[in-house]
Write a structure and sequence with these properties.
The structure holds two protein chains of two kinds.
Chain A lengths: L1 H22 L3 H4 L23 H11 L12 H4 L47 H4 L1 H5 L8 H9 L2 H11 L6 H13 L7 H6 L8 H13 L14 E2 L14 H4 L8 E2 L21 H11 L23 H12 L4 H4 L7
Antiparallel strand pairs in A: 1-2
Helix pairs in contact in A: 3-8, 3-9, 11-14
Chain B lengths: L1 H19 L12 E12 L2 E2 L7 E2 L5 E18 L4 E3 L6 E5 L7 E7 L1 E10 L3 H4 L22 E2 L4 E11 L8 E7 L15 E6 L6 E3 L4 E9 L17 E2 L5 H8 L3 E10 L6
Parallel strand pairs in B: 1-14, 11-15
Antiparallel strand pairs in B: 1-2, 1-7, 3-4, 4-5, 4-6, 4-8, 4-10, 8-12, 8-13, 9-10, 10-11, 14-16
The chains are: A mainly alpha, B mainly beta.
Pfam family, one (chain B): MbnP
Protein name (chain B): Copper-binding protein MbnP-like domain-containing protein
InterPro entries (chain B): MbnP-like_dom (IPR046863)
Chain lengths: 346, 278
Amino acid sequence: MNKMIVFIGLLLVVIACNKASEIIPELPELFEGFKQPANFPAPAYNVAKNPISKEQFELGKKLFYDARLSRNNTISCGSCHIQAAGFTHHGHDVSHGIDDQLGTRNSMPIMNVAWNKAFFWDGGVADLDLLAIVPIENPVEMDEKVPNILKKLQGDEQYHALFEKAYGTSAITSIRFLKALSSFMVMATSSNAKYDKVMRKEGADFTQEEEQGYALFRSKCANCHPEPLFTDGTFRNNGLVPSAVNDLGRYDITLNPLEKYKFKVPSLRNLKYTAPFMHDGRFLNLEGVLNHYSSEVVDNGTIDPSLENDDGKLGIQLTAKEKKLLLAFLETLNDESFVQNKLLAE
Amino acid sequence: MKAIKHIFLLSAMTLLLAACKKNETPAPDSNNVGELSVEFDNIVGNKTLQLNTANYTNASGETFNLSLVQYYVSNLKFTNTQGAEYIVPQDSSYFLILGHDRNSRFAKVNVPEGDYRSVTFTLGVDSIRSTMPVEQRQGVLDPTGGHDGAGMYWGWNSGYIFFKMEGTSSVVASADNKFRYHIGLYGGYDPTTPTLNNIKTITLDLSPGGVAEVRKGYRSNIHLLVDLMKVFNGSPNIDIAQHPTVMVSDFSSVVANNYQHMFSHDHTENGVRNENEL
């Protein structure tokens, strides 16, 4: 009998140990605070004014992956921003939200947001701390209100402890909630693609193909997708034929007719994980995107001047060979360490 | 004891007399601070506001009722009879008037003693506050909707809804007959691509209806009438049938131009000791 008790006791200890190692991630070693990569400019988000502690980050991460942020507790931020898909909704042309409802736009990556000056395809929000309100309140995404979420969290002892660790007291307020989510998103930095290692001279070199692709990129794409973020953060009409939805893009925000069909220039980092492409996810792969630029661009009134050529033709003239070289270069912008970063994992 | 009673009676009578003789209010001492409120008393034409129950008819002959009325008042400024301005510190100068909550009808501030002959306020939220960090947008300005669920903020087009009015009218050709006016837009965060700016600044002369004589220990109340009918009856008149829903659109500026004329000064109550007197 005694032996039995000892055995069960040991068993329990073993189970307890296993559980502990499952629950507690190895964050102490992983979290190093916000860092500006050597080849990146200063971030747009005021990190000095909003220093990110490990505790705030951990709270933000728990919130990011908590389905209670949606009306019926089914959809978390992470549902449509999946790390393995570069924090997008892989395979979905437009966002797929609560009650299987569909939005009208492609889920954007949570990546290098600390450098973003404006958010969403139309730039409707200019402050990261206000970003989370949008998917939360969108009736086809999470369809919830922050005050309701706070009530749900207030009923959870674990959150009281997490808020206290992060902010000194256990008060669960809207500002702390938003700031914690920002803390998580700001840490989603992707800066370790092959391209970065070449630029930072960390022992990597472009192949001949990649090097040629890089030169092509700089002459044909970098106007709108400048290094090292591979977006200039502006809103442009890149000559897509409007779909049946007739999404007017930036115009919906500014009501300026000159901004009809303009959308934010997306980054070209991590394209390997983030298909499909464009604001409505209409292109399933990069070949489709390059074919668009080389031969499918149309002018519906507000086309970006950089897509107009002296000979009257629209788009970016690219040969099949050039496309291949560009694709080789774009491949160097994929950051496997980002999509596998345990720090950001659910 | 009797003497004390007499003194008490006498002083009570003196006070009563003093209250009656308004001209004998002591001269203001600007080192002292008194309470001042601006009362936003919603009416519709020549009727009081009765949400959901009362029927009103606008200049276009459309009969409607109102189910929801709420708007921001901010950036209060008062000018005294000498022409000097007092600007209420901005952090305490944001108010949300809710048609369904009579307690919300006062914008209460503290101002130096003085005789104030005009009031200026913003209908809406100024552009600077609209782009401030969230820490400086608490209380009625909480963008997450902490303001009693009033829903006075657009998340997707980051900005406050200045004025919200909803109701029903049989002229609206939809199943629920609802009309919804949600008016905002502060000019946008990017000066290179400005949006509409529907921020309205309203100044009212208080002289005809009574200046606000603000004195320490008392409250003055500037009683305004807010005629919601002016949303429809203005230049131009707005037809509900043609415009059942006005939100982020060019037409929002027409509504805002009309509603800036809603406010008129009715009277001022000075020497108020208790809000129940109002």
